[in-house]
From TrEMBL:
Oxidoreductase is among the record's keywords: no
Pfam families xref list: BTP
Listed name of the protein: PACE efflux transporter
Species classification: Bacteria, Pseudomonadati, Pseudomonadota, Alphaproteobacteria, Rhodobacterales
Organism: Lacimonas salitolerans
Keywords: Membrane, Transmembrane, Transmembrane helix
Length: 186
């Protein structure tokens, strides 16, 4: 599997959040009659809360899955991925509605509707953003694969057992596709 570097992920996250802020804040301000400053503050506050909550949710879900099934997240079946996604959105709503109430000065029901509207927007925005981002800054499979699999490659029988690479460390036209398909050991 080819991965983006931590630096690239940070850039991607910042670009995503700034793009979302630039799109959502004006719409919120227009619909709710809020000032630009109040709109940016509300969207930024919810963004920070979601960025803080997401790794906590993912860790708790992954730990529960491991404890109940002995399965790691990368082996998660599709149905459980759906449960993960729904639990993430529901739990995110639980942690962001109070922020919208506090920062935006809205009541519970109004905050819930705002949160649902933002969630629906972000589902579509996430899809479009990542398609555009992957086109704009594609992962370089050859370089990433070589960096990721330096001296080991997965055994054909299991991705958990490793064996040394049989091909040379430097890419050639013959072995480059095989190097790019390798996964990073867990």
């Amino acid at each position: 599997m080819t991965l983006r570097s931590a630096r690239e992920r940070l850039f991607q996250t910042l670009a995503f959040e700034l793009g979302g802020l630039a799109l959502v804040a004006p719409v919120y301000g227009f619909v709710m009659g809020a000032s630009a400053v109040a709109s940016v503050l509300l969207v930024a506050a919810t963004s920070v809360v979601v960025m803080a909550w997401s790794p906590i949710h993912n860790h708790l879900f992954d730990a529960a899955e491991w404890r109940l099934s002995g399965r790691v997240a990368s082996e998660r079946p599709s149905r459980l991925r759906l449960v993960h996604a729904v639990s993430h959105e529901v739990s995110t709503t639980i942690v962001t509605v109070p922020v919208i109430m506090l920062v935006g000065g809205h009541g519970f029901w109004e905050s819930l509707i705002i949160d649902i509207a933002m969630t629906l927007f972000y589902v579509a925005y996430t899809y479009v953003f990542h398609v555009a981002y992957d086109w704009w800054r594609p992962v370089r499979p050859a370089a990433a694969a070589l960096a990721a699999v330096a001296d080991v490659a997965p055994d054909d029988a299991s991705h958990r057992r490793l064996r040394p690479l049989t091909e040379p460390d430097q890419p050639t036209d013959a072995n480059l596709p095989r190097l790019a398909e390798r996964t990073v050991p867990e």
